[in-house]
Amino acid sequence: MDIRFIYSSLDPVGVTIKRLGYGFEEINEEVTDFRYDKGDTIIIFSRHQSKAGVPSLTVHYPGNPTEETMGGEPKKLGIAIPRLFVSILREVKKIDLDIEKVMEATHHGPTYQHVPVIFVEVGSDNNYWTNEKIIKALVEATLKGIDKMNYVECKSYVVGFGGPHYSKLFTKFADENCIGHVISKHYIDKLSDNVITQTITQSTDKIDKIVIDSLNSRQREKIVSVLRVFNINIEFR
């Protein structure tokens, strides 16, 4: 597999990676909104920002589930690659640092690519974005996850709906399952049928399980009515 590693010169995490000597590809644009057509899969290293400012290492897919965009196109999800995603996440969770390690729900761009894209991020302020020890540990864990991809075992290939943006449930699920797109509760009421369908179709691996987390009956029925045609097992939590 031809995996391309990308960072931005505009991103302090990218600057730190360059300082460490990794020969990854540098772009001079924001990583949430750029066009790129090389490789079979793209891994993007970037900073993570949050209002709470919690130190964290996160992994997620790009995509804009609604009309609201932060780079990329509205109502468009990137292509998920569940087996590689969890292989990386499992290695990130092993990093021996006292810092939160979590999967984020799908959000922001880019969405233009025709190959899978995974974001691997460091949060949540400049002290962490420029910390060479943390950045190196994250990059090495990512590389190890790639090396182990073909040995990953998955009970199910899962997509999720509901729950918070920082999904401890799906982070835990990733210990035994491969994870595709997860759409947080914040987007559910504005989801189009097409985006709900994209959670299944925008994946390199066939999804065989849908997990619906903490949604009300109206929200659950909306999702089930769209995905019923796929005849996939649905679990309510």
The domain count comes to 2
State the CATH class of the largest domain: Alpha Beta
Percent range of helical residues: 25-40%
Number of helices: 7
Output the radius of gyration: 17 Å
> Averaged pLDDT, please?
96
CATH topology of the largest domain: Aminopeptidase
- The SSE string, one letter per element, is EHEEEEEHEEHHEEHEHEHE
Distance between the termini: 36 Å
Instruction: Give the overall silhouette.
Output: globular
The count of strands amounts to 13
Name of the CATH homologous superfamily of the largest domain: AF0625-like
Task: Identify low-pLDDT runs.
Answer: none
Strand order in space, largest sheet: 2-1-3-8-4-7-10
- In CATH, the architecture of the largest domain is 3-Layer(aba) Sandwich
Counting helices, strands and paired strands, the structural category is: alpha/beta
Summarize the structure in words.
With 237 residues, the protein is an alpha/beta fold. The protein folds into two domains: 3-150, Aminopeptidase, CATH 3.40.630; 157-236, AF0625-like (Rossmann fold), CATH 3.40.50.10700. It is 28% helix and 26% strand. The protein has helices spanning 12-20, 82-93, 126-129, 132-147, 168-173, 193-201, 217-227; strands at 3-8, 25-27, 41-48, 56-60, 63-64, 76-77, 100-104, 117-123, 157-162, 166-167, 178-183, 209-213, 233-236. The strands form three sheets. Strands 2-1-3-8-4-7-10 form a seven-stranded mixed beta sheet. Strands 11-9-12-13 form a four-stranded parallel beta sheet. It has a two-stranded antiparallel ribbon with strand order 5-6. α7 links the parallel β12 (209-213) and β13 (233-236). Belongs to the DtdA deacylase family.
